[in-house]
Amino acid sequence: MSKFTCPYCQKKYSKSKIPYVCPNCGEKTEPTFFIYTEPIKCKHFRKDQAGNQTNVPCGGTATIRLCPYCNREIPRDAIYTPNLPFSIIGVSTSGKTNYITVMLHELSATSGLRLALTPETNATRKLQNENYEHIYKEHTPPPATQGAPKAQIWKISNLSRRVGNRVPSYTFTIFDGAGEDHERIDPHSDIYLYIRNSKAIILAVDPLIIPNVRKRVDANVRRNSLGGSEGAEKDASEVMVRVIDYIKNAIGGGAKNNKRITVPTAVVFTKFDVVLDAFRDNFGDGAAIRNRDLPIRSDVTINLEEFNNIHGEIKQWLEDIKEGSVDNILYANFKEYRYFGVSSYGGSPKKNGMTPDEIKPMRVLDPILWLFKKANFVK
Ligand SMILES: Nc1nc2c(ncn2[C@@H]2O[C@H](COP(=O)(O)OP(=O)(O)OP(=O)(O)O)[C@@H](O)[C@H]2O)c(=O)[nH]1
Ligand SMILES: [Mg+2]
Ligand SMILES: [Zn+2]
Ligand SMILES: [Zn+2]
Fold it and tell me: What is the pLDDT of residues 221-255, one digit of tens each?
């Protein structure tokens, strides 16, 4: 029987270890045979009013699956579909939550991709709905992420790769942490183990920390794109080194380890609407990054050439704004990385940080599609 990885605590164990709980009586029933003999009948007996066992069977079905280690409820689909864990990492207010919300929405709403996305847990559905309402309907940005990071658990199916009745599907999980947690991370925390298990990393970088970008951007636009604060000027290389140390500590080997990280990493510059407005000389009308078409060909395969072009444009731009050393740092630390530029809103927030009237996401699917291709989920 194959091993199962808990989408919450990341422990690996045999599926036969998963206890099934009956919602009627709250008792656990271990599957005696194979897990595939679901539904599992509750093996307990009813209690009388005084709390004594009777010989009347409970009659319930043990439908709740619990992780034997962390005791959290495992969604049914997670047991039958392989796990595809992705991490998003970046300092506070770099735009992670907005990006995830908009990207997941686009991923399910873009029919040309032939991907089906459904939440596996109520908590996932609720979080996505709440953040979606904030951004698209109320036009207020989602609140800063607080507390222990939560795994969002989705089932994702690739309809274009159906074989007979079988549609390749994964349990796609994504962890959105609070930025400032990066500095003081507990090595036993879920997020640490989660990063260690991740098959892909999204490294979110806010271009508005870069001195030569800040100089060119109107002060109001800047404030509105930093959740109302002035933000601090930072050396992009320094921020990169800190985030990479954090990833290396989590992945193992520690920050001093000079082996390159082998997990494919999308280096995503967020809030790119601001950069496109301020750097017309770098990103002219013909620039690949301004193209609004989906990066897929007519046979629903990924157009990697488009990603190569965008990578080249951003790399050149980094050199032009005197941040070329960022690329050396990434090259020294990642076996496979690529630059992306995205805008979750398609424009900068208005007064009081309200999101634009019309949300026009720009190139938000690129990083995820590239990583899906690296994971062999799409062609
Ligand atoms: N111009 C512009 N600003 C954006 C965009 N996306 C996010 N922002 C701004 O960035 C702020 C922070 O975004 P979040 O998504 O909350 O950032 P975060 O990385 O999740 O922050 P923490 O949860 O604190 O770690 C928002 O309040 C907006 O002001 C965008 O696409 N364009
Ligand atoms: Mg957040
Ligand atoms: Zn668990
Ligand atoms: Zn029962």
Answer: 999 998 888 888 888 888 888 888 888 888 876 77
Residue 92 CB less than 6 A away from ligand 1: yes
- In terms of domains, do 43 and 169 share one? no
Nearest-CA residue for atom 9 of ligand 1: 225
Closest-CA residue, ligand 1 atom 6, reads: 95
3-state secondary structure of 351: helix
Verify whether ligand 1 is closer than 6 Å to residue 101 (CB atom). Answer: no
299 and 330 co-located in one domain: yes
Residue 298: closest CA among 163, 165, 160, 167: 160
Question: Tens of pLDDT along 38-48?
Answer: 678 888 999 88
Evaluate whether residue 236 is within a structural domain.
Answer: yes
The residue among 23, 56, 75 that closes a domain is 75
Amino acid at 294: L
Atom of ligand 1 nearest to the CA of 361: 31
92 Cα nearest atom in ligand 1: 25
Do 143 and 97 lie in a common domain?
yes
Element (H, E) at 152: strand 150-158
Residue 85's pLDDT is 92
Checking if the pLDDT of 9 tops 90, the result is no
From CA 73, how far away is CA 13, in angstroms rounded?
15
Question: Which range of residues forms the domain containing residue 151?
Answer: 81-374
Closest CA to 93 of 151, 129, 149, 141: 141
